[in-house]
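Here is one chain, start to finish.
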Amino acid sequence: MRNGARLQSWGCEADDCGNRNWTIFIDQSVDNIEICYHDSETTGTQSRWYRGDRAATLRDAECPSE
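Its structure:
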């Protein structure tokens, strides 16, 4: 799915989408990739975000699906 200039792909664990899901964002215009991973067992209501060679960060909420 396109979200503005970014390509976005969302997925989840079968039968457990609310507790384990992920989103991958690819923006070719600036050579950038971001990955969001949500696992309520390890991060509660937050999601872990990865971007390039930076350390992962936690953000509130599940990974965006739109």
